[in-house]
Amino acid sequence: MPKTMDKIEAYLRRCRELSVFRHENGWIDNDTLRWEVIERSGECLQISVTFDAVALRLNLETGRRNT
C-alpha cells in the first residue's frame, strides 16, 4: 500500500478542498501537512488531516506627513 499512501499525500498537497480551512490571504504550509488513516472499509479510506495555515497580513497605510 505504499504507492497508495504516496498518492494520498500528493493529492492532499494540491487539492482545493483543504483551502476552505485557511484564512483569506493565507496558504497551507505543506511542510506541516500530516495525515493518518482512521478507518478502512473495502477500497475506501477515511483520513484525518492536520496542517498549519500561514496568514499574510498587509498594512496598506503608506505613511503620514506631519504639517
Question: Could you write a compact summary of the structure shown?
Answer:
This protein is of the alpha+beta class and 67 residues long.
Descriptive notes:
The chain is α+β, with helices and mostly antiparallel strands and 67 residues long. It has one domain (2-55). The protein is built from one helix and two strands.
Provide the descriptors you would attach to this structure in a database record.
about 20% helix, about 70 residues, alpha+beta, 1 helix, two-stranded antiparallel sheet
What does the secondary structure layout of this molecule look like, with pairings?
Blueprint: H1 2-14, E1 26-41, E2 44-55
Antiparallel strand pairs: 1-2
Nearest-integer average pLDDT = 83
Shape, please?
elongated
Question: Any idea what the radius of gyration is?
Answer: 19 Å
Instruction: Provide the domain count.
Output: 1
Helix fraction by DSSP (H/I, runs of at least 4):
10-25%
Strand content: 35-45%
Classify the secondary structure makeup into a structural class: alpha+beta
Largest sheet: 2 strands, antiparallel
Quaternary structure state of the chains depicted: single chain
Strand order of the largest sheet: 1-2
Report, as a whole number of angstroms, the end-to-end distance: 70 Å
- Counted by DSSP, the helix tally is 1
**Residue windows where pLDDT falls under 50 for at least 5 positions:** none
| Secondary-structure element order, N to C | HEE
List how many beta strands DSSP finds.
2
